[in-house]
TrEMBL record:
Residues 11-55 form the F-box domain. It comes from Miscanthus lutarioriparius. This is F-box domain-containing protein. InterPro entries: F-box-like_dom_sf, F-box_dom, PP2-like.
Length: 274
């Protein structure tokens, strides 16, 4: 009779079945599953689950020995990768989603000022025309994911010309520098209302858009959101081929031709947004 039949609960399933189901979720969900019961914890912590999360990331670890510990190491410390031109960039994983994050170092960016200092970071000594460009192949990023690009920078003592409200950023998918349809955003590296008022009479301006302010990070650097975009999804071979040829192109420009100095550039970060 139905009343005498044994009821099979989800926790009674073999560990391999639970692990396969959990591997179809996200790292955040896997950690939540581990708190359900001992059976779920064993499945959620299994190498099968975390190997799948790592397979979605870059080939910087031995997938045959992939584990939760290896995943967490990539989240916490990341890895340094070198492109075909010898430029280093740091890669790490977003702990919650497993999406790939990148930091293009200052040496990997186009910094067309003549008078500067270059060590691990780039410091602007003096220039009149200031623009910064960076490129990252779309294939390096996690598909079907919304990303934001951030200029990571600091200011040296005696900085000048970085408070005027005539600064713009763009982020776009393109095969060239910046696509014609790229949206532009008004930003300001070092908001200073007193200096801005003096400059309004001669500024070309950036339109009516409200100027984005920077954010001071816990590591002491400041970051400015340059813009957002969504990477192409898994839409079949044709979309994959197109995405493989595209790049994410970011730019920061100051429109006015006046003396500028004291900008210290660490790089540009690409991180997922929710």
């Amino acid at each position: 009779m139905a009343g005498n039949q044994e009821v099979t609960k989800v926790g009674d399933l073999p560990e391999v079945c639970l692990a396969h189901a959990i591997a179809l979720t996200s790292p955040r969900d896997a950690c939540r599953c581990a708190a359900v019961s001992p059976a779920f914890r064993a499945a959620a912590d299994s190498d099968h689950v975390w190997r799948r999360f790592l397979l979605q990331g870059p080939a910087v670890t031995n997938k045959s020995t992939a584990s939760k510990d290896a995943y967490l190491r990539l989240c916490d410390t990341g890895a340094v990768l070198v492109d075909g031109e010898g430029n280093a960039m740091r890669m790490w994983l977003d702990k919650a989603s497993g999406a790939k994050c990148y930091m293009l170092s200052a040496r990997a960016l186009s910094l067309p000022w003549d008078d500067g200092e270059f060590r691990d970071v780039a410091q602007l000594v003096e220039c009149t025309s200031l623009d910064i460009y960076g490129r990252l192949p779309v294939a390096e990023l996690t598909p079907a994911t919304c990303y934001a690009a951030y200029l990571v920078y600091g200011l040296a003592d005696g900085h000048r010309g970085l408070s005027f409200p005539d600064q713009e950023t763009t982020v776009a998918l393109a095969s060239g520098r910046v696509g014609a349809g790229a949206s532009r955003h008004a930003v300001c590296l070092h908001p200073d209302e007193a200096e801005a008022r003096k400059f309004r009479a001669v500024s070309r301006g950036t339109g009516a858009e409200e100027t984005r302010p920077p954010r001071l990070r816990e590591d002491g650097w400041s970051e400015m959101e340059m813009g957002q975009l969504r990477t192409p999804g898994d839409g079949g071979e044709q979309e994959t081929a197109v995405a493989g040829e595209e790049e994410v192109v970011v730019s920061f420009e100051v429109l006015g031709w006046y003396s500028k100095r004291g900008l210290i550039v660490e790089g540009v970060e690409f991180r997922p947004v929710y």
